[in-house]
Amino acid sequence: MITIGVLAVQGDFAEHAHALRLAGASPREIRSPVHLDGLDGLILPGGESTTFSRLMRLYGLTPAIIAAAKNGLPIWGTCAGLIALAQEITGDNPPILGLMDIAVDRNAYGRQLDSFEADIAIPALGVLPFHAIFIRAPKIVRAGRSVELLASLPDGTPVAVRQGALLCTSFHPELTSDTRFHRYFLTLAQERQTRRNAAAV
Question: Cα 164 to chain center, whole Å?
């Protein structure tokens, strides 16, 4: 079975773990660098990005996750996790992991009261639209040439992007009963598992 880590220092990691079980994967809560061993993928959940960043540094996870990503580990960031993956955060905010060639504006869609939901087309998931939930969502304001657009709002703003084994969403798929995005991420993890098994032969 595919094993997916969910960073569990802060945020809605339990919801991601539940969605992973429904999608057929084995979730593992990650709170220490040693927990990263043997993973097929890693999810950075939504939460409060400043707290998120501080706790990752405190537990020694920041350099460990960067090293794992450079070794090909698929990583998916949702909301605050997207902010963590971005190479650039607008304002005077330094990057947290700086792994994906995107720039983001934190809380660009407003406060908690300004949260919204939208049905968006995501061709990679099939023909049915995906019901996306945006909560204090970050806005992707720049994407590099190697970044693939998976979904956008009607005004053209990107809300789901991929760069190799890195995946980012501004919204929260884990807060819906639709597991298609989690199953999509599992395909990236399956590729990773297949490569590792072949190298071990």
Answer: 13
- List 16, 79, 168, 182, catalytic entry: 79
- What's the pLDDT tens digit per position in 79-134? 999 999 999 998 878 999 999 999 999 866 655 545 789 999 999 999 999 999 99
Concerning whether 168 is annotated as a catalytic residue, the answer is no
Beta-bridge mates of residue 43? 6, 76
Please confirm, yes or no, whether 172 is among the known catalytic residues: yes
Q: Which of 15, 16, 168, 172 is catalytic?
A: 172
Give the chain's domains with CATH numbers. 3-200 (3.40.50.880)
Rounded to two decimals, the pTM is 0.94
CA–centroid distance for 35 within its chain = 18
CA atoms within 13 A on the CB side of 84: 34
174 assigned to active site: yes
> Could you give the percent of the chain with pLDDT greater than 90?
76
